[in-house]
Amino acid sequence: MDLHALAKADLHRHLEGAVRLQTILDLYREAGEPLPETTPEALAPRAQVLEPMEGLEVVLDVLDLVRGSFRTYEAVERIGYEAVEDLALDQVRLAELRFSPEFFFTPGALDWDLAMERVVSGVTRAAAEHDIAVGLIAIFSRDLGMDSGRRTVAFAERHREHLVGFDIAGDEMAYPPTLYVDLVDAVHEAGLPVTVHYGESGPPAYARDAIELLRPRRLGHGVSVGLDPEVTALAKDRRVGLDMCPTSNLRTRAVASLAHHPARRLLREGLLVTVNTDDPGLFGIDLTHELEVARDEMGFDLEDLRHATANALETSFLPQGIKDGIRARHFGWLDEPEPRAPGR
Predict the structure, then answer these.
(1) Which residues are catalytic?
(2) Alpha helices in 37-111 (DSSP H)
(3) What's 199's domain CATH number?
(4) Structural domain tally of the chain?
(5) What is the pLDDT of residues 105-119, one digit of tens each?
(6) What is the dihedral of CA 304, 306, 312, 314, to 10 degrees?
(7) 71: Cβ contacts below 8 Å, ≥ 6 apart
(8) Mean predicted lDDT score pLDDT of the chain
(9) Is residue 46 exposed (0-12), middle (13-18) or buried (19+ Cβ within 10 Å)?
(10) Which of 26, 164, 165, 280 to pair with 95, CA 20 to 30 A apart?
């Protein structure tokens, strides 16, 4: 089956990691600080992560160059618009785009509320043009400190009507879930669904504590859930979605190899596994690529891909009516499951 032609869903895509290389070049030039590279091909070795690196923290460092282009309101609107345009080019019909206002808006000293208006404008305009259901998720970047966390929660409360969820992301190992119970309680009180990045570079105990203490509806990555049977059972029992991102998980060394990735096993054990891109600009990929990786290197068959996509529609934070409408218009392929061979 031509996976590019299929309607797809991507629940885990960072706006800051989805910027086109040409856009980075353009925005630096417009800011009066042109980069020495003049083509996307020349910029790629510095602005992308194309091979496995030492770990998540090293990969995050590469984003500093990209971040230097986030300087104007016009820039953040362009990034939002192009992110949705790129979804359309890949036949992604439902997506959630997440961003950290502290990380995204600080390089240009932008007013968070005015910048949010421009992000919403770019995303909404492109989503309407391409018939894509898109939700926005605000991220607290935990390495930026608790003051940033409180500012981000207040930001999320102010922009509740334009957000579908709240996330905690960034360097995981130094920041156990126990630190954020009060912060996330405030998000729950505001009525925003919660997802948190745990189980990517941290141990199964972090994923367990995140599920029990922070009460998320999804885990960003959650790879380590598959390393401990008790944590696996907990995630299954609580019906916590697992936003798996194969290429990202390989390049950040969350897994030693794609053959060792737990996504297929956990999916077939009944957990709510999905397949996503994480940072498509940073990794030089799209969702079609990730589905091909799942099929060709991780052993997914067509029924697995259907199941993972149906999980994405189920666990998405978008309103049910919007999900039902986009499924009826674009996801007919999910209703024709391929019979699985006896013994599967």
Answers:
(1) 200
(2) 40-47, 56-67, 73-89, 101-105
(3) 3.20.20.140
(4) 1
(5) 999 999 999 999 999
(6) -110
(7) 27, 31, 107, 108
(8) 95
(9) middle
(10) 26
